[in-house]
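Notes from hallway chat w/ T.B., transcribed later so I don't forget. T.B. wanted the structure written out for a chain they're using in a teaching module, and asked if we could keep both sequence and C-alpha cells in one place. Agreed to drop them here.
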Amino acid sequence: MDLLNKHKFHIPVLGLGYTLDTPINVAPYGISSVISLVDDKLMEQMREFYCQKFDLPFKAISEKVEDFRAKRITSYLNLVDEIVSTKVNDLKKTAMDKSEELEKYFDMLPDFSSIKEKFKLGEKSRQFKEDLYNWVQEHLPVGDIDVNIMTKLDKVNSKDGEELPIEYNDAHAALRGFANSNLSSSLVLSAGMSPRLYSYLEKFKDFFPDINGELKKKIILKVSDFRSALVQGKMLAAKGLWVSEYRIESGVNCGGHAFPTNGVLFGPILDEFRKNRDKLLETCRGVYETALTKKEITHPATTPEIKVTAQGGVGTNEEHNFLLDHYQMDGIGWGTPFMLVPEAISIDTKTLELLRNAKEDDLYFSGLSPLGVPFNSVKWASMSEQRLANASAGKHGMPCTKQFLKYNTEYTEKPICTASKQYQKQKLEELKAKDLPQEAYKKEYDTIVEKECLCVGLGVSLLESKNIAVGPTDKVTVCPGPNLAYFSKVSSLKEMVDHIYGRINLLDNRPRPHMFMKELGMYLDIFKKRVDNFISNPEDAKEKKQLSAFQKNITEGVNYYTELFKEKKKELVKEMEQLLNKYPILNREL
C-alpha cells in the first residue's frame, strides 16, 4: 500500500524553551518540530523532569564533567528519542483496535492522505484492518526530532582561566552533542554562514552517506535569499556535506530574532527559488559527488534530492496552499500560531493569556536582543516589566548568569553581554558624559536599557509550565511574530492542524492582511524610520546607498505582486495600493 503522504507543515524553533519538548508532544502524530540547542542547563532540567515523569533513571551531568555541554545535549536528545519511540510503539499496538489515539493520528492527517482513506476502509473489513496493522508496524510516519543551532552563538569557553580549544565553543559543542546522539534527523543551521562550524561538521560520520548511501543526520540551511543558499550549499558540498533542505523565512518570520532583508520581499525571493531550483540541485550535486570521490566515500544509491520549504507569517489554509502550489514548496513552517497551543509547546498560563489577548499594537519589532538583531516581542511580558521597573529605580542591567550572548568588547578585553549590569553601567556613564540635549539623550538611553536577558527569559515559561522552581527575579521573555495578532483562541493540537488544512477557521473576526502585505508593511515601516534617521545625517554615503537599494527592492517587489495578483486576486492589489498610500516617503528622492 502506498501510504506515504505526510504532513506538509512543521513547527519551527520558538525561542530557547517553548519548543524544547515539542517533539514529545507532536512527533508520535507524524508532525516534525525543532528543538533549540542553546541552553544545555535547561535541557538538563528537562531531562530530570521527564526521567521522573516516565520513571527512568537519571544521573546529573554537572559542569565539572569534561565536555559537559555536549554530553548534556546528547543525553537529552537521546531521552526525547526514547520517549517518542515508546509512544509510537504504544500507538502501533492499538492498530487493530479503534483507539482514540490512533483515530486522533488519522483525523489530523491532510484530507488527501491515503492513510486516512485506508483507515476508514479498515473499519469495514478485517482484511483491511490486518493490512493496515502490518503496514503501521513498519511504515507509520513519525515526526522528525530536528534541532537548531544559531551559528552566531559560538562563544569561546574557558576553564581555570585558560581558553578551551575551538571545539568547546558553544555552537561547536552543541553540534557535537547532536552528532553523538541516537537521532536520525536534521540539523537546522540559522543566523548566517559559519565556515569554521561547517568545517567541524566533517568530523562526524553521520553527516556522510553510509555504506548504503543513506544519511543518518541531514543538514537544513535557514536562508533569506537564493544567492546565500547557492553559496552555502556549494561550500558544504565541497566538503562532502549535502544540504537536504533550504528553509526560506520571510521578514515577518516565525518569532524571535528576525533577519530582515534590505527590502527584498518574500514573493520575489520564493519565485527565484522556484525558477532556479534545478540550478541549485545540479550545481551542488556536481561539487558533492567530486568531494565524496576524493574522500573515498560511497555515493548515495540514488541522486540526492533537496527540499525547499517556506515559513514566516503564514496564517491561513489559502496562504499555505498558495506557497505549496504556486512556488512548489515542499512544506510550510507554522510557528507563531502554535504559541496558543499548550498541547504542542510549553508555556505558562500567565504568558499564554498575555498572548491570547495581544493585538497588532501590542506585538512589535524590538531591540531587546543583546545580539543587536531585531527581535519580535510583545508588550507587558514579565521580563520587560521588571527591566523597566529596575531602570526607573536606577538599577540598570541584569546579572549575566548563563552567558550565551557575551559578544561586546567595547570596555573589556573579554566579551560581555550588552544586557548585563557591567556593560550598561559603563555605557550609561559614557552617555552622560556626552551632555546631549534631552531628546537625543533619551533616545540613546532607551536603546541601551532596552536590552534584555534572553538567556534566562526565554526559558522561564517552560520551567513554570512544568512547575519547576525558578529564581525570584527570573521573569519571562516571549517571542511571538506579528501574525499572532489575528489569533486569540487557546487551541488543541487537532484544532490548529484542522485550521492549517482549512477544515476549521481559528482566525478572529477582524481584518487580517495577507502575509505578503504584512511583510511589505513591516519593510515600509523600517524604510521610513531609516529615512527619518538619514535626514538628520545626510552625509552618510553608505546609508544613502543602502536606502537607495532598499527603495529599489521594495518598488520591484510591489511591481511583482501587482503582476502576480492582477487577474486572480484583484482585492490584494487594492489592499497593497491602500498600504502604499500611507507611505508617500517611498516615492521621494533621497
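Follow-up for T.B.: Residues 513-590 form one domain. Might be a good example for the class.
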